[in-house]
Amino acid sequence: MSNIADILASFELDASWLRRLYEHMHANPELSMHEEETYQLIVRELEAFDCEIVAPIGKYGICAVFENGAGPTVLYRADFDGLPVTERTGAPFASRKVVTTADGDTVGTMHACGHDIHTAALLGLCSVLDNTRDKWSGTFIALFQPGEEIAAGAQDMADNGLADKVPTPDVVLGLHVMSGRAGEVMSKPGPQFAACDSIRVHIPGRGAHGSMPHNSVDPTFTAAMIIARLQAIVGREVNPADFAVVTVGSMSAGKAINIIPNEAELVLNCRFYSDKVKARVYAAIERVVHAEVAASGASGKATIGYFAHGELLDNDAAIYSAVRENFDAIFGPESTTSDPKTVSEDFPIIGQAFGAPYFFWLIGCTPRDVWDRAVEEDRVAEDVPVNHMANFLPEYEPTIDAATRSAAVAALTYLAR
Amino acid sequence: MSNIADILASFELDASWLRRLYEHMHANPELSMHEEETYQLIVRELEAFDCEIVAPIGKYGICAVFENGAGPTVLYRADFDGLPVTERTGAPFASRKVVTTADGDTVGTMHACGHDIHTAALLGLCSVLDNTRDKWSGTFIALFQPGEEIAAGAQDMADNGLADKVPTPDVVLGLHVMSGRAGEVMSKPGPQFAACDSIRVHIPGRGAHGSMPHNSVDPTFTAAMIIARLQAIVGREVNPADFAVVTVGSMSAGKAINIIPNEAELVLNCRFYSDKVKARVYAAIERVVHAEVAASGASGKATIGYFAHGELLDNDAAIYSAVRENFDAIFGPESTTSDPKTVSEDFPIIGQAFGAPYFFWLIGCTPRDVWDRAVEEDRVAEDVPVNHMANFLPEYEPTIDAATRSAAVAALTYLAR
Amino acid sequence: MSNIADILASFELDASWLRRLYEHMHANPELSMHEEETYQLIVRELEAFDCEIVAPIGKYGICAVFENGAGPTVLYRADFDGLPVTERTGAPFASRKVVTTADGDTVGTMHACGHDIHTAALLGLCSVLDNTRDKWSGTFIALFQPGEEIAAGAQDMADNGLADKVPTPDVVLGLHVMSGRAGEVMSKPGPQFAACDSIRVHIPGRGAHGSMPHNSVDPTFTAAMIIARLQAIVGREVNPADFAVVTVGSMSAGKAINIIPNEAELVLNCRFYSDKVKARVYAAIERVVHAEVAASGASGKATIGYFAHGELLDNDAAIYSAVRENFDAIFGPESTTSDPKTVSEDFPIIGQAFGAPYFFWLIGCTPRDVWDRAVEEDRVAEDVPVNHMANFLPEYEPTIDAATRSAAVAALTYLAR
Amino acid sequence: MSNIADILASFELDASWLRRLYEHMHANPELSMHEEETYQLIVRELEAFDCEIVAPIGKYGICAVFENGAGPTVLYRADFDGLPVTERTGAPFASRKVVTTADGDTVGTMHACGHDIHTAALLGLCSVLDNTRDKWSGTFIALFQPGEEIAAGAQDMADNGLADKVPTPDVVLGLHVMSGRAGEVMSKPGPQFAACDSIRVHIPGRGAHGSMPHNSVDPTFTAAMIIARLQAIVGREVNPADFAVVTVGSMSAGKAINIIPNEAELVLNCRFYSDKVKARVYAAIERVVHAEVAASGASGKATIGYFAHGELLDNDAAIYSAVRENFDAIFGPESTTSDPKTVSEDFPIIGQAFGAPYFFWLIGCTPRDVWDRAVEEDRVAEDVPVNHMANFLPEYEPTIDAATRSAAVAALTYLAR
């Protein structure tokens, strides 16, 4: 352990370089799978290091392979896409970029989920490792991933030869900034982020004039019964000790005011910390939907389509134990145990592409004064900006410091001589 | 027509005899299919007439056949059972009889549905016809039926050879006293009383400890969904111009406080004026029940049992036309058009036993002062006692008069020379 | 009566003129409240008659006043707007017109509801009356109304001085072509078309991330409960002998796939034959909506807005009796009794504008061979095109004949010398 | 620690005495709050020890106070009531006792929840402590409680002066045998057993004849809507990371087949591991019930009564830490971490009566061969008898041994010199 502390102490990162990088990325966010300029920026920065750049993998995926003798292979992943949110942080480097959506609307773009921190921290880690080669041995792979927000980028890299283009890692690492006291390093074994899917349910009926219900099979009533039953799946079919969420994200049927519609549509969103629970709930949803359509007497059959899939992020227990011991040693009381979070990530797909175990942790980024006051006043839920909000802005110094150093600690847990 | 008026004018009924009969029956009501004494009373009275008494048919059914030369055969039916209601009419001849029920409770008995009037009126009609044989020809059958209140008596007579024991009638007639201005003769073609069934729905589930819903299939939730859907059958699957009622008369599940029950039971009661609508609704109920059990994931199958059947009382259009013309002539403005009523009768079974068309009408029996005041104050629903209530008591004079005379008019429509 | 038959026999309409008029209108339908050319056509045709043209009343309303000495004043109304339906009748004079809707879509336009027949018949009636002035006396007002399909035209005329600009009629008349054997004249007293309203229900909730339902008040569940309860209003709160329809024409909530929506919207459509039943149902809907919002724990309040109002079309009994007698005399077995129809009309607003009683009847227009075959095969519901369908096309000869002549019979019931 | 091992090693319990005691109790179970003979048996056994017997406290509560110099006061509780279950274990000492219930039914009685083991173990512990007085100092209170199964006994003792009659303990201890490998000692900090309440919900309506729903307010529909909404409380209002169960244990309404009932009743059973979650759910249940009654238009108000209350059993973290360390030392791998259980206990009321912290653990009692085979075949849920089942029988030797010794370890954690 003292080795890792020594390595960290032996090299001082160029803080102004890192800050410039971050602020540039923050001011120039690009939407998922359209990160052309960020891609070029990262490649350009990587060219300064003694590494092999493998890019693009898929549309904009990048790997930088740092070979350094015998030893384990560690892959660390950062994502770099922004969001269609109009920034309201008031930062001098706030984004002013506007894009036109597929619907023809214009919307601002923003790094509202901290991926700029993630990318800066990984470039920082590259700098650390590139400058301390005598103190570690093995192979380090820096993976920069586009399109995390739409759950597309990891899959795109996996589908385009990721596993063939770089050495197979022994462990896959990554982190996410999140609301929490800036600088806190939060981790846990097992489920950290939820498995998630969206489900489009198309409910058939038979339209008729609104005054002639006996000629119809009213799909709005079928939809209502399905909505009522979905929560009973949660309340009656899931072990109350397990975690399951079934949300109706949208419902729609009918446009004319005096016509019973032909069909209705529900879009569900479901989350779990267990693939077994997920399987049971999905079976129940399918059973309920088909039976309710039958109960309504529709001649058609419901269609049920799954999309926007998010894998369960289920941290490997052994990596967790090994890294957490070092987190505790380096960060002291700022190394804490995370709760499981209900959001999702496509990070597990990177590990799965290699068949490699993975570990993912969280870095608190809320400005410390805001956080401390909110905690004191019991107003965390009300006062602390969370990811994706227009006023989400990490407190730079403690956040980048904890992100870069925790990334180094985790990688060096395996690579330090 | 003038013939009928002449016949009615030619003979004066013994009013004190009829009243004594009525008051004796009223004071001595007997429950359905236990009408031993009333049966004997009727047979005794019939022995005074020149007729053939065919009795018992089934348990307590009676027919008196008055043959009088060539001509049509007319059957007229009256019922004679009382109800388990403790009388609160204050009449000097009120029932004081008490019986012990199967549950061991004691309850008063009462002619709370006017069957005493029905029987007295038919004995009166027998007297009229027996004393005016020269003015009519054909065959008249006076049928006295037990057990109407439990829908058992007509079936019992039909099952025990009714159709073989008396001549087949050309028309079957009958009437019922009902709230409405005493003396009013109310009739309509087509549906007069509703078809009705009770339906016992047994809903399978799987019991479990109350804290372990994931080990159960909760039949109370299934029951709730079925109850919700039943009204949608009425609101969505029945032509809004048609009449249909689906009522949940009872629901039950579970006894222990902390156990999810194994099963639930609903008892439904349904009413219709059309056998086609009935068929559609019953098919829908069965579809809904089975699909909701499937939606809940129960491995068992629901059972659906029909009982307490009531036939649609659907007046023959031709009899109605012929008799109504005479009602209008004899009763003037007191012959009115009835609404369809939602209650049920086993009267149609008598006609069906012979394959004969039938006609059934209503006689208003509410004391005239009560009725007129209620109408004036728009308080009919609140102030007028209805059948089966403890304070239901026909105003004797106008009611027995209209009942006896309308029965005579209807019979003589076919029998008058 | 023989007078009316004589008048009809005394003048022969110019059938080729009428047919040209009809086919021209049919080929050139205009959408509701955009009937500029049809307006001009009608005014031009009216100029051929000895009448006073009062136009426009409102946007495109027209009255032609035929004064002809002392006597009653009769107003007869025809409507003249088309529909956004792409015609598929295959007629040589089928519409090929296309319009661009507010949404930017293009859609065909079509006289899919027979208003071209209505207008032609009224111009035909004007010709009859203008040419038989010696045989009638009084005042005849031909009223041509735009915008019936969107329930706007009658109100627009009433709001713009209709009652002040023409004499007050003693009776207001009108008719509608409808599926049924072409040439049949169908009428009834009392409710002929339903009262109707659309109701926009805005259901408040509180949005949250889809994985955090405990921070939300889910408006989709509230909507489901309301939908379930609406049919129970029909099944439990309306006298089963009454007519009431509550239809959910559209439901909508949410756009994002993983967000619990802030709010939901239902649009209902309700129909009745009684204003009393309507009042009870609307009170129940409001009670249910507000209570379900409360049950969900929303802090906001639902809003309930009524629109697209249709008055109950409740035929005056006296006009019906007088006219029906003449219909029976002139049309024989082709004068039949109509069922009440569940659709709605803004015709009553014309009568109400004057405080005058009204009568409205139906003319069968289905090609006779189609109708007879459908009846024989019990496939009326499947095989007979109904109003608003793309293949709805009246059989011209019997339909225009029955429409024109029944209009003349009804008007002459009051005006014939 | 070695002290405790030494103390346990220094005295050998009279195993045949203990076994006779157990088998006698097992053969003679008494129902809750009717444990007259068991009470006398315990008192008799206690008389052999050098202790002060304080009894009865309430109906059948017993405390035996062992004073032994300065030091902490430790109270250990065992319960001793049986259940109305007909035993089917096949044991030679199986119960053959039959009782007559309040309903007049007869039912067997059985120690189907292991309270006989609990009581024997505590008498064993008394023997250990009474014979090793030189090795510990302080005060030990053995508390024997009746009526646990109906959540009555602890409250009865608390209400009848428990806290005044014996010294106030520093810690309160207890255990429960449970399915699990016989001899396993399972413990956890915080919530071990659930908080629980039953809730009787009376739903007002307005009865009417089944054919006249418009005169009713149908309470079965209200009940159905409430049942539907209860699961949405679980699925939408509880943080999915929290534990909450809302079960409908019984529902009932109506007896007559053709009457809409006046009222309905639901009995709910709810369980939680957090009083905060409980408060939120109960508020939601009350909100839902009252709003649904309002939605149905009932004029009456629902009543909601809580009963059969079970406190959250929330183990004190400090006692857990101290005792668990010793469990691990003494029992090695047979000291494991328990899951929270969804059942409830009135044990916390003993601690609360004194304002003292408490700790409660579990002892596996399933015969080891049964358990091992079930685990191997993944059939634990199917094959392992659980508490309250007629075939529930602890494997005596390892169970009594672990129960007695773990009780001694826990007590001596505080009392050992």
Automatic annotation (TrEMBL), chains A, B, C, D:
Keywords: Hydrolase, Manganese, Metal-binding. Mn(2+) binds at residues 113, 115, 149, 176. InterPro entries: Amidohydrolase, Bact_exopeptidase_dim_dom, Peptidase_M20, Peptidase_M20_dimer. It comes from the Bacteria. Coiled coil: none annotated. Residues 199-291 form the Peptidase M20 dimerisation domain. GO terms for molecular function: hydrolase activity; metal ion binding. It holds the Pfam family M20_dimer. The Mn(2+) ion enhances activity. Its cofactor is Mn(2+). This is Amidohydrolase. It comes from Corynebacterium lujinxingii.
